[in-house]
């Protein structure tokens, strides 16, 4: 980015700036005329100067130019106008004044909108330029730059810069022209009053900006303090676990409090200085009207200035302070924004950025990374000055499977990062054939080298999104979208320097990864996850996933068939008592009362949990069915029982989880309700009834066993089910996906759609046995791969926190494998696994990468079996040894075909 903000703005927006400035200049004659009309109304229409010689009519819209005496006098007539009476002239001039007010307002409207659009376009360009530079940060820069500060700069700190961009050239032109027009008009009326106004304006322009320089310094301090505050808060959030472990709450509160006090102190100083300057500016602005009234009145008394001219001068001066004030504010904003821009450019300094590589040069060097790999005179030092690599050299031929034997030394990891291009800051040279590895374009390295480190980085999104992340190099084809919207998007992208490519385009080269289309790529991903040992986990994720029957009707129909097959298996195997199916005519003892009443899955939050009792449609349906009083009475009994059971128990006790009706923090509230209403009564207020009604909705007789449900109430609840459905279907938005044995419930997990019921609480080990039965039916009906593909939609959460360390590591490895790199570097990526599993995965990687190169850091020679080359490190030197080859890979951990589902995974 240019070091000068104005050069950056002019370079990218000069065409738009000139167009708006041209409109500003075109608006000034209309502005001048609007200033002269009050004089004409007072002098010619009201005082009757136009009818002085006994004329009954006067010209209207007479166009001419009358020069003042100090400009030589004289006049030029353009149009004689229309003859009007005195009243007609008054209304004609007044209407003309209103017309010019509308015209000037229209000009201002267009100019402000144009400035706003121009500013937004430039803000979009600037943010994109900064983000592009973030992608070019070198590894050394990334170790010193705080991500939270960089994000704050791009999101917040450039916001005022973007707001200023539209005003950078247009506002000073517009305001200067307005002020100059008003001053010129005053001088035309009376040169002495004009010079007086010019003198006061000159004082304002000279003194006020000088007084505001201290505000700039304070503003710079405030911006830096705010950025440091954001960075510190980001650090605390990143390390919140350490804060919890060491109970450092008081220190962190005090530290942030100190930073907030610093910000407060700076802002107080800014306010004091700011309003002193504002007071002086307002005083100077009001000083000129004093002179106008005094001196202008004196001239009027002497007859050298008529009343209409004095009124016009005062009216014109009213138009002068606003543009002057805004012009001074613009100058202040200019200096403030320039400071911000300077700080932004310093954060994105050139020394922090990797050099740009042209696309043609990148394409020319995109060749397979095979041949002789040689490192010469490699030198790397540690933070204490010791040498990790000291003039080390090696040579080997690629493709090869190389074991970098750590033996307690960091040299192996350093070498792995050098080969993976993750450590550019080293001495010496490393080449592949005639090509310098460190000079290869980043695009070539990204496609042909993969690196899996000890801390896998996953982005929020699905497992699939993370697996195919390394395949999105460039768009290969366009998807169909609205032509007009596409043209507008591309046009705006070209005007703002943004990419014209759309994220909806085809970004994946399926042929490169050995797939035909997106579905085939999913099958490849599932295959690799099975090979890597994550098949069972992805299968369980799939069971927890959901199906959209509109998008995949064939799969939905097959799931319904599998549901029938599952119940056939239960009946034939004597397992019918394991699951109680949903039946529209029967009460399900294994489900909650809410589930029995809704007989479906809520799709909005207002029908979930305690909020269901607050829903007016739901309560009205219960009232129609006549079960509200019974449920409130049951809620009162549950509240009594819970307060007795939980009395004296600390929060977090296991009983709170077992009886999930009332939380520890809610006990006092229900105790208060019991004191007000120890037994059911008709005078119970609405809020208490709703709170009590919410308790039995989570009640499951088979689980909680409080004996609160008898056959009569069950029958009434089944009958109430019909009223609930009818009421919700008539409402504007039902919010519930109702159960149907002949179709998929889209809002329910796939597991629930297969079961179409609830696992019995009364049968021991029922969940494990049901999970085994589901696995059997899934395999028999060929649904395994489809379910695993649904598992690819599992969200990984922020930084992959919804996955276990082993799952994160597996996803990271498959992400590297699926792009088929020429060189795969493994540096601690298997650390989350035990030794036996890590050895199995190592042998699998050796098997999968027979035609590619594999560099893996291993702790000792015992785990280096099967590699072609052993690379050892000692005293800063490197030695290589070629072995006789690998051995046949052993079987991996069983995939989902053989894996037994984990207990508790089926609800």
TrEMBL record:
<dbReference type="InterPro" id="IPR011527">
    <property type="entry name" value="ABC1_TM_dom"/>
</dbReference>
<dbReference type="GO" id="GO:0005886">
    <property type="term" value="C:plasma membrane"/>
</dbReference>
<dbReference type="InterPro" id="IPR039421">
    <property type="entry name" value="Type_1_exporter"/>
</dbReference>
<dbReference type="InterPro" id="IPR036640">
    <property type="entry name" value="ABC1_TM_sf"/>
</dbReference>
<feature type="transmembrane region" description="Helical">
    <location>
        <begin position="192"/>
        <end position="211"/>
    </location>
</feature>
<keyword id="KW-0067">ATP-binding</keyword>
<feature type="domain" description="ABC transmembrane type-1">
    <location>
        <begin position="67"/>
        <end position="329"/>
    </location>
</feature>
<keyword id="KW-1133">Transmembrane helix</keyword>
<keyword id="KW-0472">Membrane</keyword>
<feature type="transmembrane region" description="Helical">
    <location>
        <begin position="89"/>
        <end position="111"/>
    </location>
</feature>
<keyword id="KW-0812">Transmembrane</keyword>
<dbReference type="GO" id="GO:0034040">
    <property type="term" value="F:ATPase-coupled lipid transmembrane transporter activity"/>
</dbReference>
<dbReference type="GO" id="GO:0005524">
    <property type="term" value="F:ATP binding"/>
</dbReference>
<dbReference type="GO" id="GO:0140359">
    <property type="term" value="F:ABC-type transporter activity"/>
</dbReference>
<feature type="region of interest" description="Disordered">
    <location>
        <begin position="878"/>
        <end position="907"/>
    </location>
</feature>
<dbReference type="Pfam" id="PF00664">
    <property type="entry name" value="ABC_membrane"/>
</dbReference>
<protein>
    <submittedName>
        <fullName>Putative ABC transport system ATP-binding protein</fullName>
    </submittedName>
</protein>
<feature type="compositionally biased region" description="Low complexity">
    <location>
        <begin position="879"/>
        <end position="899"/>
    </location>
</feature>
<feature type="transmembrane region" description="Helical">
    <location>
        <begin position="164"/>
        <end position="186"/>
    </location>
</feature>
<dbReference type="InterPro" id="IPR027417">
    <property type="entry name" value="P-loop_NTPase"/>
</dbReference>
<keyword id="KW-0547">Nucleotide-binding</keyword>
<feature type="transmembrane region" description="Helical">
    <location>
        <begin position="279"/>
        <end position="301"/>
    </location>
</feature>
């Amino acid at each position: 980015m240019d070091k000068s903000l104005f050069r950056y703005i002019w370079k990218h927006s000069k065409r738009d700036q000139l167009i708006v400035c041209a409109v500003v200049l075109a608006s000034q004659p209309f502005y001048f005329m609007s200033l002269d009309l009050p004089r004409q109304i007072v002098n010619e229409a009201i005082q009757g100067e136009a009818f002085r010689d006994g004329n009954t009519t006067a010209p209207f819209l007479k166009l001419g130019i009358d020069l003042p005496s100090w400009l030589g006098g004289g006049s030029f007539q353009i149009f004689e106008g229309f003859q009007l009476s005195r009243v007609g002239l008054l209304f004609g001039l007044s209407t003309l004044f209103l017309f010019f007010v509308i015209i000037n307002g229209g000009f201002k409207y267009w100019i402000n909108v144009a400035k706003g659009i121009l500013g937004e376009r430039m803000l979009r360009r600037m943010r994109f330029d900064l983000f592009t530079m973030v992608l070019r940060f070198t590894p050394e820069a990334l170790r010193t730059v705080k991500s939270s500060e960089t994000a704050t700069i791009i999101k917040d700190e450039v916001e005022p810069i973007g707001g200023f961009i539209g005003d950078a050239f247009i506002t000073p032109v517009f305001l200067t022209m307005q002020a100059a027009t008003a001053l010129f008009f005053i001088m035309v009326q009376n040169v002495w009053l004009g010079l007086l106004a010019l003198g006061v304006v000159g004082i304002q322009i000279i003194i006020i900006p000088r007084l505001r320089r201290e505000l700039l310094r304070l503003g710079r301090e405030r911006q830096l303090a705010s950025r440091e505050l954001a960075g510190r808060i980001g650090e605390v959030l990143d390390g919140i676990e350490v804060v919890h472990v060491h109970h450092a709450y008081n220190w962190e509160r005090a530290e942030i409090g100190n930073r907030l006090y610093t910000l407060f102190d700076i802002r107080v100083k800014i306010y004091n200085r700011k309003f002193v300057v504002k007071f002086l500016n307002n005083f100077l602005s009001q000083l000129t009207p004093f002179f106008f009234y005094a001196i202008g009145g004196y001239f009027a008394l002497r007859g050298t200035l008529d009343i209409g001219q004095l009124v016009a001068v005062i009216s014109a001066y009213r138009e002068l302070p606003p543009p002057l004030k805004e012009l001074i504010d613009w100058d202040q904003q200019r200096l403030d924004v320039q400071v911000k821009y300077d700080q932004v450019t310093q954060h994105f300094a050139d020394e922090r950025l990797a050099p740009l590589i042209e696309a043609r040069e990148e394409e020319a060097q995109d060749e397979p990374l095979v041949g002789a790999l040689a490192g010469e005179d490699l030198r790397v030092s540690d933070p204490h000055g010791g040498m990790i690599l000291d003039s080390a050299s090696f040579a080997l031929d690629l493709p090869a499977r190389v074991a970098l034997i750590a033996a307690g030394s960091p040299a192996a990891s350093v070498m792995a990062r050098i080969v993976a291009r993750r450590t550019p800051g080293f001495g010496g040279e490393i080449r592949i054939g005639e090509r310098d590895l460190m000079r290869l374009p980043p695009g070539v390295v990204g496609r042909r080298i993969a690196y899996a480190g000890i801390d896998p980085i996953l982005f929020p999104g699905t497992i699939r999104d993370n697996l195919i992340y390394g395949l999105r190099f460039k768009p290969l084809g366009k998807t169909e979208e609205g032509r007009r919207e596409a043209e507008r998007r591309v046009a705006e992208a070209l005007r703002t320097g943004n990419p014209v490519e759309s994220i909806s385009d085809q970004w994946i080269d399926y042929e490169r990864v050995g797939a035909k289309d997106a579905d085939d790529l999913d099958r490849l991903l599932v295959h690799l996850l099975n090979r890597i040992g994550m098949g069972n986990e992805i299968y369980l994720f799939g069971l927890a996933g959901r199906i959209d029957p509109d998008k995949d009707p064939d799969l939905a129909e097959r799931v319904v068939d599998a549901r029938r097959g599952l119940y056939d298996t239960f009946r034939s195997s004597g397992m019918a008592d394991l699951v109680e199916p949903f039946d529209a005519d029967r009460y399900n003892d294994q489900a909650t009362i809410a589930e029995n009443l809704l007989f479906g899955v809520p799709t909005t939050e207002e029908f979930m949990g305690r909020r269901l009792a607050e829903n007016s449609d739901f309560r009205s349906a219960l009232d129609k069915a006549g079960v509200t009083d019974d449920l409130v009475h049951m809620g009162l009994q549950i509240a009594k029982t819970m307060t007795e059971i939980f009395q004296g128990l600390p929060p977090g006790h296991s009983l709170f989880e077992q009886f999930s009706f009332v939380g520890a923090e809610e006990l006092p509230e229900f105790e208060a309700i019991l004191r007000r209403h120890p037994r059911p009564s008709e005078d119970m207020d609405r809020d208490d009834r709703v709170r009590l009604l919410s308790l039995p909705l989570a009640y499951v007789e088979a689980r909680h066993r409080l004996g609160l449900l008898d056959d009569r109430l069950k029958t009434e609840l089944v009958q109430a089910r019909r009223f609930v459905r009818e009421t919700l279907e008539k409402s504007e938005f039902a919010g519930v996906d109702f159960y149907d044995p002949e179709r998929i419930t889209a809002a329910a997990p796939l597991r629930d759609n297969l079961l179409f019921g609830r696992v019995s609480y009364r049968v021991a080990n029922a969940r494990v046995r049901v999970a085994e039965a589901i696995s059997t039916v899934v395999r028999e009906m060929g649904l395994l791969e489809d379910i695993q593909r649904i598992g690819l939609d599992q969200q990984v959460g922020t930084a992959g926190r919804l996955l276990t360390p082993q799952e994160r590591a597996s996803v990271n490895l498959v992400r590297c494998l699926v792009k088929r790199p020429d060189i795969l570097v493994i540096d601690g990526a298997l650390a989350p696994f035990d030794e036996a599993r890590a050895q199995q995965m190592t042998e699998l990687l050796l098997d999968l990468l027979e035609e590619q190169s594999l560099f893996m850091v291993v702790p000792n020679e015992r785990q280096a079996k099967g590699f072609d080359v052993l690379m050892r490190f000692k005293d800063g030197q490197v030695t290589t040894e070629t072995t006789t080859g690998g051995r046949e890979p052993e079987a991996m951990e069983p995939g989902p075909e053989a894996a037994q589902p984990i207990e508790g995974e089926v609800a």
